[in-house]
Amino acid sequence: MDRSFLFFVLFIAQMASAAAQVLPRPDHIVIVVEENKSFTQIIGNKDAPYINALARRGVLFTNSFGITHPSQPNYLALFSGTTRGISSNACPLDLTGENLGSALIARGLSFASYSESMPQAGFDGCRYGAYMRKHNPAANWKELAAINQPFTAFPQDFEKLPTVSLVMPDQNNDMHDGSIAQGDVWLAQHIEQYAQWALTHNSLLIVTWDEGDYIGKNRIATIFVGAMVQPGESAQRINHYTLLRLISEMVGLPLLGESANEATITGVWKNRPADSKIQKIK
Predict the structure, then answer these.
(1) Is the link from the previous residue into 70 a cis peptide, with omega within 30 of 0?
(2) If pLDDT is split at 50, 70 and 90, which confidence band does 9 have?
(3) Rounded to whole angstroms, how far apart are CA atoms 51 and 223?
(4) What is the CATH number of domain 3-277?
């Protein structure tokens, strides 16, 4: 084969590979974390009509998994790329080092954590009513106190949302203590307005669970809804580290911890290379 032709072929292959990795850049990303329910407890469950309708409007990942048990290390994995050696719900934690919030701020972007029933910004107690610090990873970094907000501070004008927001319903509404139906209603009441807005404003909603129900392989439901999302189902295997990698790549952050070892999420974006593998929901 002619050497110049071979170089041309290699060049085209490299360009195609690079193009396949191009991700959309949402203006706003909101991640809502629910609690302790497996994929099969949620998807197809008549007690979760809103969540199942949301899945049909976006991408449902059918091979999404928590990292471990119990709750807290999964939140730490999503927020910092590592469980940080934590294997319990111990509180309080006083952590240092890299995390999604500080990485966004260092990049000149913005982040906020919004926890339902937390009494005030920067609250460092382990619990307050149905609020639990174990479900609020940002509370474990003292330097993030100012952006550790109660859910009452979640903007009603979504243009004022930070680049990335982490939303935690309290234990009555995240399916931990309350029912699946109760959690479903909470999402419909508090998140649906943003979901609708995201579809027309270059923004992304991610709804996921911290972990499953200790039965099976920790398989959970994860749903993406937004203007850049091609509705359907994706069978690619993902976990909390994968989500952290995706968010980091979308907004141009360094890859934190174990997220660097995950593959990029592809095949679910509108008008992007490699979008042909998504399976349409019938």
Answers:
(1) yes
(2) very low
(3) 9
(4) 3.40.720.10
> At residue 30, what are phi and psi to the nearest 5 degrees?
-115, 125
pLDDT tens digits, 92-112: 999 999 999 999 999 999 999
CB 69 within 8 A of CB 241: no
**Would strands 148-150 and 111-115 be described as parallel, antiparallel, or unpaired?**
parallel
AA letter at 184? D
DSSP-derived letter for residue 92 is: -
Helical segments of 1-153, H only: 3-20, 39-42, 49-57, 71-80, 100-106
Cα atoms in the Cβ-side hemisphere of radius 13 Å centred on 60: 22
237/265 Cα distance (integer angstroms): 9
Query: Is there a contact between 48 and 37 (Cβ–Cβ < 8 Å)?
Result: no
DSSP secondary structure, 152-184, as one string: GGS-SSGGGS-SEEEEE--TTTSSSSS-HHHHH
Distance CA 212, CA 152 (A): 28
Q: How confident is the model at residue 13 (pLDDT cuts 50, 70, 90)?
A: very low
What is the amino acid identity at position 230?
Q
Q: What single DSSP character describes residue 193?
A: H
**Degrees to nearest 5, angle at CA 188 with 184 and 192:** 140
- For residues 133 and 137, give the distance between their C-alpha atoms in angstroms, rounded to a whole number: 7
- Residue type at 219 in one-letter notation: R
Measured CA angle at 72 (ends 68, 76), to 5 deg: 85
